C-alpha cells in the first residue's frame, strides 16, 4: 500500500502495538563516507536547485509556488498563504543549512515546480535530546502530481541531512502515513464570525441568528491581566527559563536555548506575536503566550480573498490561569484584526478550548518522527511540539 514508506526507517503499521522494540533510532548512523555523494536522479526534464532564501527573487518564486500549490482543506475552499517574511523566518533559524532548502526546476523554463525544506532542531524525546531536521513545505506543482516526485525529494533531503551527520527528523502532515506518534485535532475560535460565515469557513449554528453569533464571540477591547505586555529582547533569558521548565513535562518537545527563543519567539510583525505577564510588584516574568500569522487564500469568493488566521504556538502559565492568559491572547489577536484563532489539542490546550468557545475543525494533524521509534503512540496532551 505504501510502496515508498515501506522502504523507510519509520514505524510500520504491521508493528503497531508490538512493544518488543526498544525506543530510539530504528537504524544506526553510518560513517559520513558511506553517505551517497551524488544527488538522486530526477526525471530528465527536471533538475535540483538549492533555494537561497536571502535572495528576494528566489523567495518570491518559493512564495508563489506555495501560494498556488500548497496545502488546502478537504473541500478545497482555502489554501495556506505563507508570507515571504514568514518563510524567511521559518527557514533561517540558528544554524540553518542552505542546502536543506531544496527546489526542483523544469530544465527548459527554469520554473520552480517543487520544494521541500529542512531546518535543524534539538528535539527531546523523553530523556534524550536528539539532533533532528524539521521537514516542512513539501510541495509539488499541481500539474506534476502523482508522478512519484515526492519520494525522490524526500530521499534527496534525507541525503543532505545525513551529510550534516543528522539521522532523525520530525514532520507533520494532514494525511495518514506510517505511523503517527500522535494525531491532533484543529480547533478554531471565531474572532470575525460574520466574515467566517460569509466565506464558508464556519456555519451559523442551529437556532442562531447572525447578531446572536456576533454577540456570542464578542471580546473585551483590551487584555485583562495586569502586567500583560509584548515580549522584548531583554526578556529572552526569562522566557527561555519559563519555557524550558514548562516543556520538560512533555514526552516530545523542542530543547530551546536562548538563541532559539530569540529567533522563534521574539515578535516579528505579521509573523510571530509573543506576550508575557510581568508581575507589577516583583517584575518577575510569570506567564507567556504566542501565536504565528498564517493567512489562507479564500478560493473563489466574490467578497474576500484572504482569511487572516492566528495559530497558537507556545504558551506557559505559572501564575495567571491559562484560561485567562489565552483569553488575553484572543483579545490582542482580535485587536490585530485576525479573523480566527486556531489551536491544536497539544500540551495543556484542552483546558481552555471549550471554555473559550473554540470549536473542533474538520482537519487533523498527524505528527511523525523519521528513524526514531517510540514504544506506543502519545496522547496529544503529551506532545510539547508545534511545527509551522
Ligand atoms: S506536509 C505538507 C505536504 N504538502 C501538501 O500537502 C501540499 C499539497 N500537496 C502536494 O504538493 C503533493 O500532493 C505532495 C505529494 C508533494 C504532498 N508527506 O509524488 P507522489 C507520499 C510525506 O506521486 P504527489 C509536509 O510538508 C505518498 O504516501 N509523504 O505524490 C511534511 C506516496 O508514498 P507511498 C507523502 O501527490 C513533509 C508518495 O508520497 C505526503 O504528487 C514530510 C506519492 O508521491 C506527505 N505530506 O506529491 C515529508 N503526501 O506510496 C517526509 C504524499 O509510500 C519527511 N506522500 O504511500 C521525512 C524525513 C526526511 C528527512 C530525514 C532526515 C534524517
Ligand atoms: O481550517 C480547517 N477547517 C475549517 C474550514 C473548513 C472548510 C470546509 N472544509 C473548519 N471550520 C469550522 C470552524 C468552526 C468555527 C466555529 C466553531 C466550530 C468550528 O473546520 C482545517 C482544520 O480544521 N484546516 C485544514 O483542513 C487545512 C489542512 C490541515 C492539515 C495541515 C497539514 C500541514 C502540513 C504541515 O507541515
> What is the number of strand segments?
17
Please report the first level of CATH classification, the CATH class of the largest domain.
Alpha Beta
CATH architecture of the largest domain: 3-Layer(aba) Sandwich
- Number of H- or I-type helical stretches: 9
Average pLDDT, rounded to a whole number, is 98
Output the structural class.
Answer: alpha+beta
Main pleated sheet: 14 strands, mixed
Q: Secondary-structure element order, as H and E?
A: EHEHEEEHEEHHEHEHEEEEEEHEHE
Termini separation (Å)? Answer: 29 Å
Proportion of residues in β-strands: 25-35%
Ligands and ions found: tetradecanoyl-COA, ligand JJ1
Counting structural domains, the number is 2
CATH topology of the largest domain: Aminopeptidase
3D shape? globular
Helical amount = 10-25%
Task: Describe the protein in words.
The chain folds into two domains: 5-173, Gcn5-related N-acetyltransferase (GNAT) (Aminopeptidase); 183-365 and 375-382, 3-Layer(aba) Sandwich (Aminopeptidase). It has nine helices and 17 strands. Helix content is 22%, strand content 27%. The chain has 388 residues and is an alpha+beta fold. The strands form two sheets. Strands 1, 3, 4, 5, 6, 7, 8, 9, 10, 11, 14, 15, 16 and 17 form a 14-stranded mixed beta sheet that branches. A three-stranded antiparallel beta sheet has the order 2-12-13, covered by helices on one side. A hairpin with a 5-residue loop joins β3 (101-106) and β4 (112-125). It binds tetradecanoyl-COA and ligand JJ1. Ligand JJ1 is lined by residues 71, 73-75, 77, 136, 172-174, 186, 188, 190, 201-202, 359, 361-363, 365, 387. Residues 2-5, 69-71, 133, 135-140, 145-151, 154, 157-158, 161, 167-169, 171, 173, 175, 177, 370-371 line the site of tetradecanoyl-COA (MYA).
Amino acid at each position: 500500500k505504501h510502496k515508498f514508506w515501506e522502504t523507510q526507517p519509520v514505524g510500520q503499521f504491521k508493528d503497531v502495538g508490538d512493544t518488543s522494540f526498544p525506543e530510539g533510532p530504528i537504524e544506526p548512523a553510518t560513517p559520513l563516507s558511506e553517505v551517497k555523494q551524488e544527488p538522486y536522479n530526477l526525471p530528465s526534464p527536471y533538475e535540483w536547485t538549492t533555494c537561497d532564501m536571502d535572495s528576494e527573487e528566489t523567495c518570491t518564486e518559493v512564495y508563489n509556488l506555495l501560494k498556488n500549490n500548497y496545502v488546502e482543506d478537504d473541500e478545497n475552499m482555502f489554501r495556506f498563504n505563507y508570507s515571504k517574511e514568514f518563510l524567511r523566518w521559518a527557514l533561517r533559524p540558528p544554524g540553518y543549512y542552505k542546502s536543506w532548502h531544496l527546489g526542483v526546476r523544469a530544465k527548459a523554463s527554469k520554473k520552480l515546480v517543487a520544494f521541500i525544506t529542512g531546518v535543524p532542531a534539538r528535539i527531546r524525546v523523553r530523556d534524550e535530546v536528539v539532533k533532528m531536521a524539521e521537514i516542512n513545505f513539501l510541495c509539488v506543482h499541481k500539474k506534476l502530481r502523482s508522478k512519484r516526485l515526492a519520494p525522490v525529494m524526500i530521499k534527496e533531503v534525507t541525503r543532505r541531512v545525513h551529510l550534516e551527520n543528522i539521522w532523525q527528523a520530525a514532520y507533520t502532515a494532514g494525511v495518514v502515513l506510517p505511523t503517527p506518534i500522535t494525531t491532533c485535532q484543529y480547533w478554531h475560535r471565531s474572532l470575525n464570525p460574520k466574515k467566517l460565515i460569509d466565506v464558508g469557513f464556519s456555519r451559523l449554528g442551529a437556532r442562531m441568528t447572525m447578531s446572536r453569533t456576533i454577540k456570542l464571540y464578542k471580546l473585551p477591547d483590551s487584555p485583562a491581566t495586569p502586567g500583560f505586555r509584548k515580549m522584548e529582547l531583554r526578556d529572552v533569558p526569562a522566557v527561555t527559563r519559563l519555557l524550558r521548565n514548562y516543556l520538560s513535562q512533555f514526552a516530545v518537545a523542542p530543547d530551546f536555548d536562548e538563541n532559539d527563543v530569540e529567533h522563534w519567539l521574539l515578535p516579528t510583525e505579521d509573523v510571530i506575536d509573543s506576550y508575557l505577564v510581568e508581575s507589577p510588584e516583583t517584575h518577575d516574568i510569570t506567564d507567556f503566550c504566542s501565536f504565528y500569522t498564517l493567512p489562507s487564500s479564500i478560493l473563489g469568493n466574490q467578497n474576500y480573498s484572504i482569511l487572516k488566521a492566528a495559530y497558537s504556538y507556545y504558551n506557559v502559565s505559572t501564575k495567571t490561569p491559562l484560561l485567562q492568559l489565552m483569553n488575553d491572547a484572543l483579545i490582542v489577536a482580535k485587536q490585530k484584526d485576525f479573523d480566527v484563532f486556531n489551536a491544536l489539542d497539544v500540551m495543556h490546550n484542552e483546558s481552555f478550548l471549550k471554555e473559550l468557545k473554540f470549536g473542533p475543525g474538520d482537519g487533523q494533524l498527524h505528527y511523525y518522527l523519521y528513524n526514531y521509534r517510540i514504544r506506543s503512540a502519545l496522547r496529544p496532551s503529551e506532545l510539547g511540539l508545534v511545527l509551522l
